[in-house]
Amino acid sequence: MQTLKLRHRAVGPLKGKRNTGIVGVVASGNCEALFERTPSEKTCEVDIRTSVVGFDEVWKLVVADFVERASPGGIRVSINDGGATPDVVMLRLMQGAALMEGN
Question: For position 29, what pLDDT does the model report?
């Protein structure tokens, strides 16, 4: 099991008032992403747990793209990966951001 901890500076806080959320499911070829608000409005923390070793750079690029697209300041994301492809990971991240922006 590999663990990565990534921190990014966002333009601003993610909109919405929801405090927590979960999207996806850990199953063959998928991942779950747990979202929670943090006090830091311009920092996005992403903690990744994966059984697939050797894709650190891919994870960094996907998370950086997510931060650029969603500006998820004030959010901590915990990802439990079951071998998801980068497009599935991005889908889960964007779904989680949309969930957190809702009421």
Answer: 81
